[in-house]
């Protein structure tokens, strides 16, 4: 029973990892740039929600959409101001750029007096409620995390499969230049991708906030998104979420069955093994240069 | 403007390409030699720290700037070197021998971490090094009987075969000598076949391979040398700080090391030292500036992080070649004045080219 | 293996998934000849080259070079044996100068281990001088003096093609593999390329195995030609023989009755 409990906790935690990885994979797949800022975007999302609810006084149901909207706008802004000018530069320049944005975001939050340096709780309506399923007591915040993740994935799938914009994004991810020649506004699409990634990260932040406390360093959880993305294959959206869940479950089980310390590195051990055995992940494609 | 007439092959092979080099680097060496006698003690401490980070930066530069393999976990190698040095010196080993051993062990660990590099590259490799760094840090925390866990470890003074000294001036000269040796070593590698093989791997693996470069060998070598230099820097910083703990060698430190190579200028030996100067000088500048800022702003903890981030963004956006690139531009301006054109270093804007295949 | 054969390829096959890219190809390259692979697009010519330089792993078959079996070797070991190559789409080191690119070509001919390089011992110094001397010879040979210190990224396509040829020559190869040496070159540059190929064979004595589309160039420089289609050998012989071979004509133009079929299908 205890094991099952751990499993469910792991899945819920894994959904958060998966969502952060999802944003990361969205950007990587579409623009081939690696974003190290996803964790900080999540942190910003959580803080924005917190500020809207506690300082501005919005009710939860108003705070959530406004947070999402603001974060999507912020993502588009990042792309427009910072990423677009260095399109075509070596990938690592962009990695450093996103690290820089992360530094700024963390620094800016820390500078908010009275808020940035403390641990804060997000006052969600379902806080501290539990649901009993077959004798298991499950925190409502975990159930919400899983449910929202599933719904979000479904929406994204429908978008990529059936909408014009989704198909255009897929085309651009194959070859930006070719897509541009076909009349697809690649730059605007990249902006939209960043917006979506920021939005997804904000969702992750709002879902994680009730489970842990909010603080300015919570963005470091975003580093766990990389193992998730690698396990999922870096370029596969369902792979990212599934990878996140796998990492979450392994971590939770490692914490339950193994000595202290293994929980924190389980994700990284898994990713190292994965890179040695199957570098393209579970769902990634094989690329090979033609000469 | 200086015109160099090439009369012999030696001119291309020599490190100092012309008399100007000899003069300026001689001057730099002289001022570094005199510094502890002229400057206040605090300044020589800062220079010592800069040299230590310069050595580590040099290692990362060799790996990332010249071999094209990015490591987001380089602080772990510093950690290995630092702990090795702390443990060996506490067992009474003389400083130079302990130092060599620390470097050797770091190199060995580096070679092991380089193993994923034989299969994966780019972001995958970066993630592998990141994962490795977390694991090393956790080992340092949990292996309490050796490392003292989170409580940390005190490090003794340096012991040159029985002559123990805690004098910062002696330590300054030790660091100076090691910095010079490390720099010369790296420069020698870069002008030999080994260095050219590194650069070949950076630019096109498939082509390097068909020119006879053994990818596995040279990638592992690059990791090993880079880790050895990081281990050297770590060991020196352990003696400098007199105290080490696992959190000194975490992800934040690793990113600081990346700042050195990116802000210094990727792919230049100068860049490693420019970057180290930046890394050491910025916190000093910020703490100086705090006195002039309104107290509400000056007291907050986030200021340093904010400033670092902004500087990093500015460099990537406006000066991708780092401080070294800016330095080259200024130098060229002086050499060509009044003929310098703004577009001289301009690069073409383009769409993202795939780096999935290299 | 007879004494005249430098490279001998026997029953070479490779499959990518379900596609037989090369099937059962056998041929020999003799010392001192220019041997050309021709065939329509997708015939598997470049794949054969990639198999010889070990970028691809053959499914079956043998490749012997100068008494060594290549099938169990790594690409860098193949280069060490003295097989140098160029690429269809130019694979130069973009951020390096022409001189540095050519020096990398000397990699297999350089001596000294890591520690000697680290200390830059007198023997390494001597080695560097020798490497530069050889590189200057190649620069002279290919008329690249003008571009010696130019970074590749700033060079026109035609010059890059020559630099890549030069880099392969710096290996001092026993066999040179050229993948479409004239692609992307204008008439004048193609003419120069033909002269160089002649000179490489006659003056430097290096045999060449090349893939080429330009039939004028092929006829002019080749000693023997192998025509391929759909991964299989169609014809082998002198340029004139192969050009006149009915199967080769069919491979390029299709069967005569096919034309009428095609016409009928068109709307």
Please give a quick description of this structure.
Chain B has 358 residues and is mainly alpha-helical. In chain B, 70% of the residues lie in helices and 3% in strands. Chain C has 267 residues and is α/β, with parallel strands linked by helices.
User: Please, how many helices of chain A?
Assistant: 11
Number of strands of chain A: 2
- The CATH superfamily of the largest domain in chain C turns out to be P-loop containing nucleotide triphosphate hydrolases
Subunit arrangement of the protein:
heterotrimer
Largest interface: A-B, 63 and 56 residues
Average predicted confidence as pLDDT of chain C: 88
Find the CATH topology of the largest domain in chain C.
Rossmann fold
Termini gap of chain A: 56 Å
Structural class by sheet pairing and helices of chain C: alpha/beta
Helix content of chain A: 55-70%
Which sequence of strands runs across the widest sheet of chain C? 6-7-8-3-9-10
| Order of SSEs of chain C | EEEHEEHEHHHHEHEHEEHHH
Number of strands of chain C: 10
Bin the strand percentage of chain A: under 5%
The fraction of residues in strands of chain C falls at 15-25%
Task: Give start-end ranges of low-pLDDT stretches of chain A.
Answer: none
Structural class of chain A: mainly alpha
In DSSP terms (H or I, runs of 4 or more residues), the helix count of chain C works out at 11
Q: Helix coverage percent of residues of chain C?
A: 40-55%
CATH class category of the largest domain in chain C: Alpha Beta
Q: Count the domains of chain A.
A: 1
């Amino acid at each position: 029973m205890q094991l099952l409990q751990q499993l469910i906790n792991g899945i819920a935690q894994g959904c958060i990892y998966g969502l952060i990885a999802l944003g990361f994979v969205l950007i990587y797949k579409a623009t081939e740039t690696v974003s190290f800022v996803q964790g900080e975007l999540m942190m910003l999302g959580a803080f924005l929600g917190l500020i809207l609810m506690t300082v501005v006084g919005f009710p939860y149901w108003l705070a959530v959409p406004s947070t999402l909207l603001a974060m999507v706008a912020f993502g588009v802004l990042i792309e427009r101001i910072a990423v677009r000018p260095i399109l075509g530069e070596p990938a690592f320049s962009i990695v450093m750029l996103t690290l820089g944005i992360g530094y700024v975001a963390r620094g800016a939050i820390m500078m908010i007096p009275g808020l940035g340096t403390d641990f804060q709780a997000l006052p969600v309506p379902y806080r501290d409620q539990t649901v009993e399923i077959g004798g298991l007591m499950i925190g409502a915040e975990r159930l919400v995390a899983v449910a929202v993740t599933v719904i979000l994935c479904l929406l994204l799938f429908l978008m990529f499969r059936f909408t014009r914009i989704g198909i255009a994004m897929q085309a651009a991810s194959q070859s930006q230049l070719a897509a541009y020649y076909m009349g697809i506004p690649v730059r605007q699409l990249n902006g939209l991708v960043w917006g979506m990634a920021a939005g997804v990260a904000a969702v992750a932040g709002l879902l994680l906030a009730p489970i842990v406390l909010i603080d300015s360093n919570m963005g470091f959880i975003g580093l766990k998104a990389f193992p998730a993305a690698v396990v999922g294959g870096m370029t596969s959206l369902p792979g990212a979420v599934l990878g996140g869940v796998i990492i979450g479950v392994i971590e939770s089980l490692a914490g339950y069955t193994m000595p202290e310390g293994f929980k924190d590195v389980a994700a990284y051990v898994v990713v190292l093994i994965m890179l040695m055995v199957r570098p393209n992940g579970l769902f990634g494609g094989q690329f090979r240069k033609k000469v | 403007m200086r015109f160099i007439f090439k009369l012999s092959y030696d001119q291309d092979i020599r490190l100092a390409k012309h008399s100007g080099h000899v003069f300026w680097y001689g001057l730099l060496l002289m001022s570094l030699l005199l510094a502890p006698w002229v400057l206040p003690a605090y300044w020589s401490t800062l220079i010592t720290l800069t040299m230590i980070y310069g050595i580590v930066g040099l290692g990362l530069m060799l790996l990332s700037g010249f071999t094209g393999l990015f490591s987001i976990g380089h602080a772990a190698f510093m950690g290995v070197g630092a702990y090795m040095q702390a443990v060996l010196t506490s067992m009474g080993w003389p400083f130079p021998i302990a130092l060599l051993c620390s470097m050797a062990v770091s190199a060995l660990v580096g070679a092991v971490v380089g193993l994923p590099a034989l299969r994966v590259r780019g972001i995958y490799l970066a993630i592998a090094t990141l994962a490795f760094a977390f694991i090393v840090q956790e080992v340092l925390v949990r292996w309490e009987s050796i490392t003292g866990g989170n409580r940390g470890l005190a490090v003794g003074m340096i012991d040159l075969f029985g002559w123990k000294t805690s004098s910062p001036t002696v330590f300054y000269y030790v660091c100076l000598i090691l910095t010079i040796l490390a720099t010369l070593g790296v420069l020698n590698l870069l002008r030999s076949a080994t260095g050219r093989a590194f650069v070949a791997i950076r630019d096109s693996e498939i082509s390097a391979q068909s020119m006879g470069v053994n990818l596995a060998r040279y990638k592992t070598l690059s990791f090993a040398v880079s880790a050895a230099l990081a281990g050297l820097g770590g060991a020196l910083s352990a003696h400098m700080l007199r105290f080490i703990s696992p959190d000194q060698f975490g992800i934040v430190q690793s990113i600081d090391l990346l700042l050195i190579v990116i802000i210094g200028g990727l792919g230049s030996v100068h860049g490693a030292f420019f970057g180290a100067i930046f890394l050491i000088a910025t916190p000093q500048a910020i703490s100086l500036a705090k006195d002039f800022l309104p107290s509400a702003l000056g007291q907050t903890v986030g200021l340093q992080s904010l400033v670092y981030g902004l500087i990093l963004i500015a460099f990537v956006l406006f000066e991708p070649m780092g401080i070294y690139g800016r330095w080259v531009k200024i130098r060229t301006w002086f050499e060509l004045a009044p003929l310098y054109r703004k577009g001289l270093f301009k690069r073409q804007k383009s769409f993202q080219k795939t780096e999935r295949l290299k | 293996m007879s004494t005249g054969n430098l490279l001998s390829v026997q029953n070479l096959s490779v499959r990518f998934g379900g596609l037989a890219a090369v099937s059962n190809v056998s041929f020999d390259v003799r010392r001192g000849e220019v041997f050309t692979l021709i065939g329509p697009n997708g015939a598997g010519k470049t794949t054969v080259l990639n198999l010889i330089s070990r970028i691809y792993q053959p499914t079956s078959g043998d490749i012997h070079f100068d008494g060594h079996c290549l099938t169990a070797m790594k690409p860098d070991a193949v280069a060490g044996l003295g097989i140098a190559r160029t690429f269809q789409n130019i694979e130069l080191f973009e951020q390096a100068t022409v001189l540095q690119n050519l020096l990398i070509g000397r990699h297999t001919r350089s001596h000294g281990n890591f520690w000697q390089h680290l200390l830059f011992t007198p023997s390494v110094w001597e080695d560097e001088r020798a490497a530069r001397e050889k590189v200057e010879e190649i620069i002279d040979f290919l008329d690249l003096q003008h571009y010696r210190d130019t970074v590749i990224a700033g060079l026109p396509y035609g010059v890059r093609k020559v630099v890549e040829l030069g880099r392969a020559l710096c290996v001092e190869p026993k066999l040179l593999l050229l993948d479409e040496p004239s692609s992307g070159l204008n008439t004048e540059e193609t003419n120069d390329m033909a002269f160089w190929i002649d000179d490489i064979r006659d003056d430097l004595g290096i045999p060449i195995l090349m893939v080429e589309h330009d039939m004028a160039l092929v006829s002019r420089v080749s000693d023997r030609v192998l025509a391929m289609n759909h991964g299989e050998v169609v014809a082998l012989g002198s340029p004139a023989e192969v050009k006149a071979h009915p199967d080769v004509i069919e491979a390029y133009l299709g069967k005569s009755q096919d034309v009428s079929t095609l016409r009928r299908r068109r709307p």
